[in-house]
Amino acid sequence: MSNKSSETSDSSSNEKTKALPTVINFINGGLSGMAATCIVHPMDVIKNQMQMSHGKASIGTTMSNIKSAGMSKFYSGLSAGLVRQATYTTGRLGIYNQLGDMWRSKNEGTPDFLTLAIMGAIAGSCGAFIGTPAEVALIRMTSDGRLPPDQRKNYKNVFNAFLRIIKEEGPTTLWRGSIATMGRATIVNMSQLATYSQAKIFFNTSGGIPDGIGLHFSASMLSGFLTAFNSMPFDIAKTRIQNSSSSSKSPTSISIIIKIAKTEGITALWKGFWPTYCRIGPHTVITFIFNEQFAEFYRKIIMK
């Protein structure tokens, strides 16, 4: 069995694989996430608009509403999405890499699942706090199109959104829902980063899938499914908190989850699941494949 180490996702240890410099690990993580976002961003737009609907919202209806406003609306908030990846993903993958390097420098073999989950949780929560302003801007920009024309903010780009939010609502608004965002990121990264490595080993040993893109795809899609299912209730709570422009104290994620379950039904906590899964799955595989290829390129060309 091949235990080729991925500096960002694979927990397997390989003494022959050269560790990337710290700054390259962070840059690699950010670029990987940004490349994936350019492809899956329309699913983010659909997911956010479905989650902001307090009634029944199907994928078909949501897509029709977006199309009626113009196909370009599928990429509303892309600049915010890219800034989010440049902050959140750079932080979470960079920190995860460093924690993994620290563990391997003091231990032999492969970290167990619990260790991987703890490292993923720490990396995710730290990265989420860094990326919360971009997250707030992304939610506002992708949800703006569902508002009546006279209530729309019509942000020009992510930087315009930052400036207007600070001017109109105060700078602390950029970190509105940061606790909810960090909570969701903890669940996401425990699910995604830890299960991806375990899924690769499972599919390789039990499924007989050789190391390569096929293995990465299979592992990431399973990881993406578990990540989407586990994080959806927290994702919906985060989305509603960050889309609120109220100056009053933000409610907690738990209180929103309970309210949604009572008023809209328990299944509403997984509203927008398939757009979320269709985003997380491809985003995971594209991120990891790009990351591994960039790392290999850097080792062969720069570190040779």
TrEMBL record:
<keyword id="KW-0813">Transport</keyword>
<feature type="repeat" description="Solcar">
    <location>
        <begin position="20"/>
        <end position="102"/>
    </location>
</feature>
<dbReference type="InterPro" id="IPR050391">
    <property type="entry name" value="Mito_Metabolite_Transporter"/>
</dbReference>
<dbReference type="GO" id="GO:0005743">
    <property type="term" value="C:mitochondrial inner membrane"/>
</dbReference>
<keyword id="KW-1133">Transmembrane helix</keyword>
<keyword id="KW-0496">Mitochondrion</keyword>
<dbReference type="InterPro" id="IPR023395">
    <property type="entry name" value="MCP_dom_sf"/>
</dbReference>
<feature type="repeat" description="Solcar">
    <location>
        <begin position="111"/>
        <end position="202"/>
    </location>
</feature>
<dbReference type="Pfam" id="PF00153">
    <property type="entry name" value="Mito_carr"/>
</dbReference>
<feature type="repeat" description="Solcar">
    <location>
        <begin position="211"/>
        <end position="297"/>
    </location>
</feature>
<dbReference type="InterPro" id="IPR018108">
    <property type="entry name" value="MCP_transmembrane"/>
</dbReference>
<keyword id="KW-0472">Membrane</keyword>
<keyword id="KW-0812">Transmembrane</keyword>
<comment type="similarity">
    <text>Belongs to the mitochondrial carrier (TC 2.A.29) family.</text>
</comment>
<protein>
    <recommendedName>
        <fullName>Mitochondrial 2-oxoglutarate/malate carrier protein</fullName>
    </recommendedName>
</protein>
<keyword id="KW-0677">Repeat</keyword>
<keyword id="KW-0999">Mitochondrion inner membrane</keyword>
